[in-house]
Amino acid sequence: IPHRVRRVAPRPLILICDVSGSMEPYTRMLLLFAHALAGGSRRIEVFVFSTQLTRVTRQFAGARADSVLSRVRDAVHDWSGGTRIGEALHRFNADWARRVLRRHPVVLLISDGWDLGDPDLLGSEIARLQRSAFRLIWLNPLIGSPGYEPLTRGARAALPFVDDFLSVRDMSSLEVLAQHLNTLR
Q1: What is the pLDDT of residues 90-112, one digit of tens each?
Q2: What are the φ/ψ torsions at residue 10 (nearest 5 degrees)?
Q3: CB–CB of 89/126 below 8 Å?
Q4: Which one of 24, 41, 94, 118 has the lowest number of neighbouring Cβ atoms within 10 Å?
Q5: Contact 106/181 with Cβ under 8 angstroms?
Q6: Which of 9, 14, 15, 36 is nearest to 102 (CA)?
Q7: Strands 164-167 and 106-110
Q8: Residue 44: which region, alpha, beta or left (left: phi > 0; alpha: psi -120 to 50)?
Q9: How far is residue 22 CA from its own chain's centroid?
Q10: What is the spatial order of strands in the sheet that 44-49 belongs to?
């Protein structure tokens, strides 16, 4: 009798990416990374935020890498604005969580943590998100910068509820992230 090997599908991914003004130097790289993930075998949902949350999963479907950035930018009304992480996560939890968190996905929150919103709201909403995710990973482009410490109000409010706090500043950090994601089954 032939032995059947059960193939384990990778967990779905949810990307919640900060596209505020302070993230501008990293936005192109991060959206191209999201495009590469969306073209793989893993189910993925992509959201971006500055002061508001916008679902941009459809902008990735069938798009070539060179057109993703403009398609996403056209869909987002608050591109390169301020940062309100707690409000964005509240909108995600209220409007999208039941739809996209059913299979306990890995959630990637991508932000530098420079938040203008209420830190108590951020803390309660990220705690709610973490309870529904298999793993909540905060990717921060400032990790690895000389003298960086996560001392912003946003970072202090969120870090107790984050499973992994990783760098996302260059291609080598994306390779480390890809290896890390492949270990999460």
Answers
A1: 999 999 999 999 889 999 999 99
A2: -65, 150
A3: yes
A4: 41
A5: yes
A6: 14
A7: unpaired
A8: beta
A9: 16
A10: 53-55, 44-49, 13-18, 106-110, 135-140, 164-167
